[in-house]
Amino acid sequence: MFSEYLGIDSDYVIVGLAALVLILFIVTIVNIVQMSKLKKKYKKFMSGKDARTLEDVLKERLDEIDDLVASNKANKKNIEDIFATLRFTFQKLGLVKYDAFNEMGGKLSFSLAMLNERNDGYIINAMHSREGCYTYIKEIIDGNSIIALSEEEKEALEMAMKSKDE
Prior knowledge:
Blueprint: H1 2-6, H2 10-46, H3 51-86, E1 92-98, E2 109-115, E3 121-128, E4 133-140, H4 151-163
Antiparallel strand pairs: 1-2, 2-3, 3-4
Pfam family, one: DUF4446
InterPro entries: DUF4446
Keywords: Membrane, Transmembrane, Transmembrane helix
């Protein structure tokens, strides 16, 4: 009756409904399998543990996280302190060896420039001769000296100032 009114053959309706039932049956089986897997995972998670021990485990993990956060803060402060200290340490070096009096050979004299991050520091100049070794020190402020520098000292200073850039 209804199928005659719409002009649809009842065989097509029955086949369509059977296909729909089959699809729903397959979807139901897939859902059952997924629920079974989920139940197994839940049982494995909860096995041997009651709510109290699970709560204790969670509290223990949270305490460990708190300890890690505190440790991280301490490490960060220590690193900041180290970097603050490093600004004043000698980080840049330049060394030039030379023969001061052209009589000894072996280039036993040297100029050593030692600078910090801001190019402040010292140049040590040691001149070696037959009579002895004479050592001088000159202060360097912002890459400059108020006392005139020898060629070797200038070279050592230039080498030191470029050493951090490389």
